[in-house]
Design a protein that fits this description.
The structure holds two protein chains of two kinds. Helices cover 73% and strands 0% of the residues of chain A. By secondary structure, chain A is mainly α. Classes of the chains: A mainly alpha, B alpha/beta. Bound molecules: adenosine-5'-diphosphate (ADP) and magnesium ion.
């Protein structure tokens, strides 16, 4: 009966000469891989089976398609009754159809996905799922795909309605194809967001409510900014349609123009993938118990996010044009600086001890090295994030400087542009590192992720506001020539690198780069201090926990020896009363 | 096979387990008995890696459940006391799903699922929707699920809870069958009679403390050296004690509600033979050892605690 796969448990082929054994192991490994690929995710299969047997879902399908068709028809008919040319009517109907579908997706998808993991918890099926040894990624992927696929069915059901637009003309099948692509681009992050919520929450009702509360305003903001972008693109690209789905026309008409391709296709692909990946990593962290490795998926994600952002920044450098590239490059560089700031707060949420579960005994020398130096646990994660922050700023400075010289070799203001981005990236590195190690230290000391984060962000705002307020009270007029000289007290603000960069880019004065030394020294030293404290604290907790376990095991062995029967031993007489060392921060239970 | 050593646990400020210590030997059916709220489920969830003990440790086949939950999960099948099943799939789809979840190779899955369905008598229901099954069937389905990866240890939390008598008997037969397959089975229950003819060892838990643990026979011997016999007579004597005059080993004779004689005595089988011989004139219809040994042990053990 047993067919438990041992192959998965044994380490992969050992390095060395390819012996016949290794070859056969390789081939069996390949066969397993093939089997894996052919074998659909069991959760996906199960969810699809249940969904298709759910009357409610089928009813929703009919009902929503019907309502959509009627609204689109009514809109089209109302306009056709007016004096609009048929082609324009067709385009408006096209926009109405896709906008309605978009609204349905934004409202329904997160709420739908938000039920997918909480329902297992509420139905008391979740534990058997965990006990089956399914790993978090398989669960999250299966749930994501299942929710995505069922909403895809909704879109497929909607598809025929778009035929109404063709009755009037003015659109091409290519527009429709790109319209649906846009819907899929929105659908994926919506579903991933819902899954992340679902993995974090216990109650289905709360999950649905939260999903709706968050997706409605975000959706409104998204649609209106989409419309705004469309209006901006209309002139230069000669578009005819109004409405949020202008990009379908843009892509249909000028897919091979590099600016359209980059801005309306590549950039959205990056944004969609980076957000889907982030939400799925968050969902994995929610599915895994607190005692397991929750940060590695985020670490892999952060590398992708950084690479993509740097490439985008490079492309943007090419677009801004030679006119005021110095100011624009500083602005975009500063904007990219939000990413390392985000990293700093993201990675400041690790429990002190590394997890006990698989990665505690990782296979292969590389993984072991990773686990020990940069892996899960507060100290290694802080090291990883610090490296990442430094890499991000080096990357930003490098891309802006190289991009500037490459795209605009003849521009005159290279000196100030380079100085500005240098000042920013050096200063912001110190600020981010300080925030990171402060947050991580708080997390370890307070044993509570939420409280630590609130306090860290509070401290950041305090550091922002205090110099600002004091300067306002003491000498408000000093802000008037901010670009030339930053007010004295503002030198200690975490925003100092930004002020400095903007000032240098506008007014020149590359020598002012040295002014960044104030924040670098203040935040750098503070960050270093927190970091040392953190490493120390983690080490002492580790030692304490190890001592406690050793003490416990010793005591239990002694008691077991006293009476080796099934029955409980008598309370130890000649043993020291069990007095374990003071309980340290429990790394497992206090996770966010 | 399972060692629970000095385990303590608290939920908030409520201490639910105190220094729980017992040992489940390999290949046995072990009963974990205690009234509702005694802490049985809490202990079992620790064994199943779903909860970490605050104090002490739990070893399964020598592996600490906190250190290597993944290894422990491969070793054990756990059926929680209140569990859910996916409703809108059929029996075979359900088992297929878990076979895939347990990472059983695709080619081996149909065979595995078939074998488990045969063992649990689910074969005829293979295409039945889970939603349309009775509680007893769902219980069997849940056990079938825990058997898919051929675990050495089965932990069943209140497996007979809410079952009708027939389903109960089927459950007992299944458990005995599993024991014969060489599995270690740990059952919890707050109803003693449903365990008495299955288990060879028990641990008795009350208010989070183990009151007694070990082989049923041993515990009984330790508690009360005396044995009890039920004898049904055709014509019971008016004076119950008359037939046993001058037998110091007989402690007490009483009449059960159903008319049978209840004899408590001390000694071996020769005393039993003597007792029967003395009763022959009254027409011996049936002689049997007292049935609910476990219940007596339980009452005996927990008396002090309740007073
Ligand atoms: N998650 C929990 N939170 C708080 N108290 C709990 C929790 N689970 C169980 N308890 C309490 O622990 C005690 C033991 O419960 P349990 O282990 O379920 O007992 P049993 O299974 O023997 O009936 C009970 O008093 C119960 O109220
Ligand atoms: Mg219980």
């Amino acid at each position: 009966m047993s067919a438990t796969s041992d192959a998965a448990a044994t380490p992969g082929g050992s390095p060395g000469a390819p012996t016949p054994e290794a070859a056969s192991r390789l081939s069996s490994g390949l066969r397993r891989l093939m089997e894996r690929l052919m074998d659909a995710n069991p959760i996906l299969l199960k969810e699809m089976l249940s969904i298709l047997r759910t009357k409610l879902f089928i009813r929703f399908l009919y009902l929503s398609t019907g309502v959509l068709a009627i609204s689109v028809l009514a809109g089209g008919a109302a306009m056709a009754a007016g004096s609009m040319p048929p082609a324009t009517v067709g385009q408006v109907v096209f926009q109405i159809f896709f906008t309605l579908a978009l609204v349905v997706i934004i409202l329904v998808a997160p709420a739908h996905a938000a039920t997918f993991i909480t329902s297992e918890r509420e139905g008391r099926t979740y534990e058997s799922l965990l006990l089956s040894g399914m790993d978090a990624w398989r669960i999250v992927r299966g749930k994501f795909l299942a929710s995505f696929a069922s909403l895809l069915l909704v879109l497929v059901a909607f598809a025929p309605v778009v035929g109404i637009a063709f009755l009037f003309g003015g659109i091409s099948p290519l527009h429709v194809a790109f319209g649906f692509m846009g819907l899929l681009f929105v659908l994926a992050p919506c579903v991933a967001f819902g899954i992340a919520l679902s993995a974090r929450l216990r109650s289905t009702r709360v999950a649905i409510l939260l999903a709706l509360m968050l997706s409605a305003p975000m959706g409104m903001f998204f649609i209106s900014s989409l419309v705004g972008l469309g209006e901006a693109a209309r002139g230069p690209w000669g578009l005819k349609m109004h409405g949020p789905f202008w990009f379908a026309e843009a892509l249909g008409e000028r897919f091979f123009e590099w600016d359209t391709f980059g801005l309306v296709f590549l950039l959205p692909v990056f944004v969609v993938s980076v957000s889907v990946w982030f939400f799925l990593a968050a969902a994995m962290a929610g599915v895994r118990p607190a005692a397991e490795d929750r940060s590695t998926p985020f670490k892999v994600w952060s590398l992708y996010a950084l690479m993509g952002t740097l490439i985008t920044l490079f492309a943007v450098m090419g677009i801004i044009g030679p006119g005021d590239f110095d100011e624009a490059s500083a602005a975009f560089g500063v904007a990219a600086g939000f990413l390392p700031l985000f990293f700093a707060s993201l990675f400041a949420n690790e429990p002190p001890l590394p997890p006990r579960i698989p990665p505690a005994r990782p296979r292969g020398p590389l993984r072991r090295l990773y686990a020990r130096t940069l892996g899960p646990g507060a100290a290694p994660t802080t090291r990883f994030a610090a490296l990442l922050i430094v890499a991000a700023h080096v990357g930003i400075a490098f891309v802006v400087i190289v991009g500037g010289h490459l795209f605009y070799p003849l521009a005159v203001h290279h000196g100030r542009a380079d100085a500005a981005i240098l000042a920013f990236s050096i200063g912001n590195t110190a600020v981010c590192l300080c925030l990171l190690s402060f947050g991580a230290l708080l997390r370890v000391v307070l044993r509570n992720g939420v409280a630590a984060r609130v306090l860290a962000v509070g401290a950041l705002f305090g550091a922002l506001l205090l110099p600002l307020l004091i300067t306002l009270v003491v000498d408000a007029r000093s802000f008037e020539h901010m670009d030339r000289s930053v007010p004295l007290l503002m030198h200690i603000s975490p925003m100092m690198p930004t002020f400095l960069a903007v000032g240098i880019a506008k007014q020149g004065g590359a020598g002012r780069v040295v002014e960044v030394l104030t924040p670098v020294i203040i935040y750098g030293l503070l960050g270093l201090l927190f970091w040392v404290l953190l490493e120390q604290r983690v080490r002492s907790i580790t030692l304490k926990v190890e001592a406690m376990r050793a003490h416990r095991d010793e005591l239990l062995e002694a008691r077991r020896a006293l009476r080796p029967s099934l029955a409980p031993p008598e309370a130890p007489v000649d043993l020291p009363e069990s007095a374990p060392p003071e309980a340290p921060a429990d790394p497992a239970e206090s996770g966010a | 096979m399972i060692r629970v050593e000095g385990v303590g646990h608290r939920f908030g400020s409520l201490r639910v387990l105190h220094d729980v210590w017992f040992h489940v030997p390999e290949g046995e059916v072990f009963g974990f008995i205690g009234p509702n709220g005694a802490g049985k489920t809490t202990t079992l969830r620790m064994m199943a890696t779903l909860l970490e003990p605050d104090e002490g440790r739990v070893l399964l086949d020598g592996v600490d459940v906190v250190d290597d939950p993944a290894a422990v999960r491969r070793l054990l099948g756990f059926m929680p006391d209140s569990f859910g099943v996916y409703e809108r799939v059929t029996v075979i789809e359900y088992l297929d799903f878990f076979a895939a979840a347990y990472d059983i190779e695709r080619s081996a899955r149909p065979r595995t699922v078939q074998a488990v369905m045969e063992l649990t008598d689910l074969g005829p229901l293979r295409d039945r929707l889970v939603a349309a099954m009775s509680k007893g069937m769902k219980q069997r389905l849940a056990i079938a699920r825990t058997l898919l990866h051929d675990p050495k240890v089965l932990i069943l939390d209140e497996p007979a809870n809410g079952l009708d008598p027939r389903a109960r008997i089927e459950m007992r037969d299944l458990i005995l069958q599993l024991r014969d397959l060489g599995k270690t089975v740990l059952l919890s229950s707050h109803i003693l009679t449903e365990l008495s003819d299955m288990v060879s060892s028990v641990a008795i838990l009350e208010k989070g403390r183990v009151l007694a643990a070990g082989k049923v026979d041993e515990i009984r011997k330790n508690l009360r050296p005396e044995r009890t016999l039920r004898m049904t007579l055709l014509r019971p004597p008016v004076d119950l004690n008359a037939p046993f005059a001058e037998m110091p080993s007989v402690h007490e004779v009483s009449l059960s509600p159903d008319g049978a004689l209840r004899l408590s005595f001390e000694g071996g089988d020769e005393v039993v033979a003597e007792l029967v011989a003395r009763c022959v004139p009254y027409g011996v219809v049936r002689v049997e050892p007292e049935r609910d040994d476990l219940e007596r042990i339980f009452l005996e053990v927990t008396k002090g605690e309740l007073q």
